[in-house]
Amino acid sequence: MAPLHLTIFFIFFSFIFAASSTSFTPTRHPFDPLTETELKLVRTIVNKSYPIGPDHKFTFQYVGLNEPDKSLVLSWHSSRNHTIKPPPRQAFVIARDKGKSRELVVDFSSRAIVSDKIHVGNGYPMLTNDEQEAATDIVLKFKAFRDSVTKRGLNVSEIVFTSSTVGWYGESEAETERVIRMMPFYLDGTVNMYLRPIEGMTIIVNLDEMKVSEFKDRSTVTMPKANGTEYRFSKLKPPFGPALRNAVVLQPDGPGFKVDGHVVRWANWEFHLSFDVRAGVVISLASIFDMDVNKYRQVLYKGHLSEMFIPYMDPTEDWYFITYLDCGDFGCGQCAVSLEPYTDCPAGAIFMDGIFAGQDGTPAKIPNAICIFEKYAGDIMWRHTEAEIPNLEITEVRPDVSLVARIVTTVGNYDYIVDYEFKPSGSIKMGVGLTGVLEVKPVEYVHTSEVKDNEDLHGTIVADNTVGVNHDHFVTFRLDLDIDGTDNSFVRNELVTKRTAKSVNTPRKSYWTTSPKTAKTEADARVKLGQKAEELVVVNPNKKTKHGNEVGYRLLPGSVSNPILFQDDYPQIRAAFTNYNVWITPYNRSEIWAGGLYADRSRGDDTLAVWSQKNRKIEKKDIVMWYTVGFHHVPSQEDFPTMPTMSGGFELRPTNFFEKNPVLKTKPIKLTTARKCTPNID
Ligand SMILES: *[C@@H]1O[C@H](CO)[C@@H](O)[C@H](O)[C@H]1NC(C)=O
Ligand SMILES: *[C@@H]1O[C@H](CO)[C@@H](O)[C@H](O)[C@H]1NC(C)=O
Ligand SMILES: *[C@@H]1O[C@H](CO)[C@@H](O)[C@H](O)[C@H]1NC(C)=O
Ligand SMILES: *[C@@H]1O[C@H](CO)[C@@H](O)[C@H](O)[C@H]1NC(C)=O
Ligand SMILES: *[C@@H]1O[C@H](CO)[C@@H](O)[C@H](O)[C@H]1NC(C)=O
Ligand SMILES: [Cu+2]
């Protein structure tokens, strides 16, 4: 069967805005990410107070935009013509300075450090790529390690490393060392290193001292084979399949969106799109044009990934500590990869680089870290066929086209595809796709029949001598919704079943009706999904529609997986922000990272769960919604040697926000095939 090369062309309609340029022109915006010039300036300014360089034990762990004052941003934004001055532009820096974590705020206009303090609590800042690479070099030169490798009959030059944070397991000393655990893998015939772990070595590197602080070898020998781990097309051998036809989405008039600096305008949407080394994509000031009132209305002040939690379920020596907080430990932006045109993102996509500071403060760049594209996946936006009227048949259909901002974060073995999708109907969908390579454990077995009675493999045999270890993925988003303004409330609209009253003349025994309750405090707004039928709506109680309904946006959750570790288990204490699927907190510019600002070796004392304990008032307040997308992952053989994408997500959907269907008057668009093709079935 020869694969067919059939090209499908779709013609896209561009909505309100005309086709536009595909290049970014620099425009000042309070949410613009720090530029290379600004990062260099940060380095120069900091160096005046704290000499930078290897001898000074001063390293940059995080450099990002200092969250601008929200009220200043809003008045600047609402002035539209931008005659009001934007808030001062500042950088927030977390540095390691002679064994301490130092927080600095650097102001660009005064070219000065305007805030300077030492972090005194638990936890350490994000790891830099640079120090993880340095740690690898240190271990490769470490004599005891090299001896162990030789003793095992292995070749040092075939060994590669990833690093793992070590977590916290109840240690009570005030200060622990800032250490990581180095995990060796063996190439020798494969590039799929994660499938060939070298087990039984404990290698701890102190990052501040940059030296091996502990080394142990329990000399286990099992290692999965390299054979069968290949995934590069160029190296795989025929037969290939299943055959897919080439598909190209063509927009003869160019993309229907416009990018001005970092501001994206498409159809009825306008938002700012940025990159942060910890969060990845940051969406801000998203507003939607309402034809009825002829203006843009605010929806999302700021939305981004806040934290991820990936605990593995093997409690033994080589595995117990694998309980990552990926964004706080490794940086979900720092781990972003360059996206491939036409495969990671479709034709017509445009790309944005990710700029961040390396450990010595010099700017580093991830080219094409974010892409933006229009998506048409054959879905229907709305339709109706009317066949009941004599002598008249009506069919009205509008295809569903949306705009997607995408980033792929590859944290070691896993690739996370994070999509922010905007729909003309007013919905915003957040999508999370998991793909990449499993984290596996070598075993002596090749078949389930060999497993001893009562032995828990903590996973599935997915290949010869290879167990894919059970684990979870929890992906937490911070969503500062501002529905038509900042003063919002959270309404839990329960659907309650009623028995029909005896007095009503009906054969029906039951019905359901709505019972809305506004959450007064944070405690009222902690939601475990799936326990009752309820709609969760963020409303603006000061704004009502013509018919008296409060304008709002509803949360449409995706499939739900809750954490099932015990609450007193250390990883769960650190990741207590996953204890509920939904939380609401009052806006606080310091409460951004659900697992705490200092996630590495954190002790759970600065999590969303702790902030929520303050039980602050949240009615008619500027509120923030937190939502966790969860997956329990029992690996299967299909996940080997790479894993087909597993997807989850959720939707924020207008609810009495508009007076009527906002896409009613969308002109019909024809997604015709430009070239007439006869599909060849063979
Ligand atoms: C930091 O300042 C010192 C002294 O002024 C200078 O010699 C050095 O080159 C500067 N380092 C960087 C990285 O700018
Ligand atoms: C800009 O907007 C402000 C407030 O909306 C208004 O007072 C001012 O007249 C406008 N200026 C110009 C030049 O349009
Ligand atoms: C070790 O690996 C390197 C390169 O990967 C190779 O050149 C060398 O011959 C190997 N040594 C042994 C003893 O196998
Ligand atoms: C590798 O695996 C393939 C089948 O997947 C098999 O045909 C081949 O013999 C194996 N090669 C080795 C060296 O084991
Ligand atoms: C804001 O958050 C920080 C960190 O959680 C906290 O210390 C501070 O008290 C909070 N401010 C308010 C007004 O709640
Ligand atoms: Cu998984």
Summary?
This protein is mainly β and 682 residues long. The chain has helices spanning 36-49, 70-78, 129-141, 143-151, 326-329, 570-574, 608-612, and strands spanning 58-65, 90-97, 100-107, 112-118, 159-165, 179-186, 201-206, 211-217, 257-260, 263-266, 269-276, 280-290, 295-311, 323-324, 350-357, 363-386, 394-411, 414-422, 428-436, 440-442, 459-463, 466-469, 471-481, 487-499, 510-518, 534-544, 550-556, 582-586, 621-633, 643-655.
Structure commentary:
The N terminus and C terminus are likely disordered. The radius of gyration is 27 Å and the shape is globular. It has three domains: 93 residues, Nuclear Transport Factor 2, Chain: A, CATH 3.10.450.40; 106 residues, Roll (Nuclear Transport Factor 2, Chain: A); 399 residues, Beta-galactosidase, Chain A, domain 5 (Distorted Sandwich). The longest helix is centred in the first third of the chain and has 14 residues. With 682 residues, the chain is mainly β. The protein has a 19-stranded antiparallel beta sheet that branches. It is built from seven helices and 30 strands. The protein binds 2-acetamido-2-deoxy-beta-D-glucopyranose (5 copies) and copper (II) ion. One 2-acetamido-2-deoxy-beta-D-glucopyranose binds next to loops.
